[in-house]
Write a structure and sequence with these properties.
Elements: E1 2-9, E2 12-19, H1 21-35, H2 51-81, E3 91-94, H3 98-105, E4 111-118, E5 132-137, H4 142-156, E6 159-161, E7 171-180, E8 183-196, E9 218-224, E10 238-251, H5 258-263, H6 269-303, H7 310-330, H8 342-369, H9 376-389, H10 394-403, H11 405-427, E11 429-434, H12 437-441, H13 454-462
Parallel strand pairs: 5-11
Antiparallel strand pairs: 1-2, 2-4, 3-4, 6-10, 7-8, 7-10, 9-10
Helix pairs in contact: 1-2, 4-6, 7-8, 8-11, 8-13, 9-10, 9-11, 10-11, 11-13
Length: 463
């Protein structure tokens, strides 16, 4: 097998591989001889089928298998022998000429093909112990806990049937049938639905028009779906709802005491407050994690500047662009509404894509050096979370992941990335800084800034 480099430009490589026809013929004869004792043909005793007959019957299919084996094995071996790592699966280019292909399968012509790929750039991993990170911390105020407890008490309160008109805060039990242009639409019908007026559960204008209705009243309500409504076929449309009221019930006072806690399955209000505080702290902890991660990635971004593989960067850009375009379309906005142009946005998101890929490669290299891996147990937990998102479709989801390696990698990648981040956080200098709730929740200028090309990072680390 002859291997010749035909392109070495930046990260791009092209390699020509030639397997002489004599080698192809030799491999074919080995395959035919190996099959003699296995093939059963009518009219021939086992092991006595002539080689010429086997070649006529199976020569092309055997040679096709040989071609696939050569492409698969040589691709991996050639790149390994060159001490390179491909950023993505190499592109294999073979002849498209039918006559040439037939000659190759007949063992009459050299088998030639080209490998086209980009390499993962080489870079030196740097010491991170001098990186300083501020961790924003919010202390949970007693008032915030009490506000949450009051909301829990409100949701746990009972309602008592009343005579007379419905008021804001009352619970109305009703049937309704929604129509657009006089025709009922999917999801627009319910019977015996409970709705607390003023809760904002329904689209704007619906609940307000129920105020003043009594048991037995019927009314047609007219509303307009918001422009950004999730169902595109309803967004911005005017609709009518035929409503029948079955019951009006007034909320009863709910004392915030141990009886409320017991109603919720807890032993006391102190325990309820403790749980609420922990939940709030957990939410703040997630925000803190994202802020700290962003700071760490920013610090790494300043230290590592190298060319990124074009195809990886293009794939990451497409992911970002598709999300941005979908968000704009869903909200009925344009780039001009956001104070920019499509051309400027593309340039900005291309830079962001390159950053993500670069950081992904850095995290991958760190994880590989430190022996960080994703365990089967961690992967199973991630799969379990996906299954819980699709109740009743567990079997289909399992089949999807079983048959889609890329989907499994997409589950593995963020776990790998977070484990590398955890490792780095143990190496850098972290100091806590108390901030307000508003400061913690303030969004970064770049909403995608905490992301890295984690899927690419994990795929590369597994290569």
């Amino acid at each position: 097998m002859q291997v010749t480099e035909t392109l070495n430009e930046g990260l791009k490589r092209e390699i020509k591989v030639v397997v002489p026809a004599a080698d192809m013929e030799s491999r074919l004869m080995e395959r035919i001889n190996d099959s003699k004792d296995k093939v059963r043909l009518k009219g021939f005793r086992p092991g006595k089928v002539p080689t010429s007959h086997l070649r006529r019957m199976y020569g092309k299919s055997f040679m096709a298998e040989i071609v696939n084996d050569i492409v698969s094995n040589s691709t991996r071996n050639v790149i390994s022998e060159r001490d390179e790592k491909a950023a993505m699966q190499p592109e294999v280019v073979m002849t498209e000429d039918q006559d040439e292909a037939e000659k190759i399968l007949a063992g009459e012509q050299d088998f030639e093909f080209d490998l086209k790929y980009e390499i993962v750039p080489k870079f030196e991993l740097q010491d991170v112990s001098d990186i300083k990170i501020e961790r924003p911390v919010v202390e949970v105020a007693d008032e915030e806990v009490e506000d949450q407890v009051k909301q829990i008490a409100q949701s746990a309160r009972t309602y008592e049937t009343k005579d007379g008109a419905a008021e804001d805060g009352d619970r109305v039990t009703l049937d309704y049938l929604g129509k657009v242009d006089g025709e009922p639409f999917d999801g627009g019908k319910a019977e015996g639905a409970n709705l607390v007026l003023g809760s904002g559960q329904f689209i704007p204008g619906f609940e307000e028009q129920l105020v003043g209705l009594k048991k037995g009243d019927e009314k047609t309500i007219t509303v307009t779906f918001p422009e950004e409504y999730g169902a595109e076929h309803l967004a911005g449309k005017e609709a009518t709802f035929d409503v029948t009221v079955h019951e009006v019930a007034a909320p009863q006072d709910q004392e915030i005491d141990d009886e409320l806690a017991k109603k919720l399955g807890l032993e006391s209000m102190d325990k309820l407050r403790e749980i609420v505080r922990d939940q709030i702290q957990g939410q703040y902890g997630q925000m803190t994690r994202q802020k700290v991660k962003r700071s760490l990635l920013d610090a790494l971004d300043e230290r590592y500047q190298f060319e990124t593989p074009e195809k990886l960067t293009e794939a990451e850009f497409n992911n970002i662009w598709n999300q941005v375009s979908a968000d704009l379309e869903r909200n009925g906005k344009s780039f001009e509404d956001e104070g920019t142009s499509e051309e400027e946005a593309r340039a900005d998101y291309n830079k962001l894509a390159a950053r993500r890929v670069r950081l992904g490669l850095v995290l991958s290299a760190i994880g590989e050096k430190e022996g960080i891996t994703v365990t089967d147990e961690e992967l199973q937990r991630a799969l379990g979370e996906q299954l819980r998102r699709y109740p009743g479709q567990e079997q289909q989801v399992m089949e999807f992941y079983r048959n889609t390696p890329d989907a499994v990698n997409a589950l593995r990648a963020p776990i790998f990335e977070e484990k590398v981040i955890d490792h780095l956080m143990e190496q850098v200098e972290v100091s806590d800084k108390t901030v307000s709730r508003e400061e913690l929740m303030a969004e970064d200028d770049d909403e995608f800034g905490t992301g890295t090309a984690s899927a690419e990072a994990e795929a590369t680390s597994e290569a």
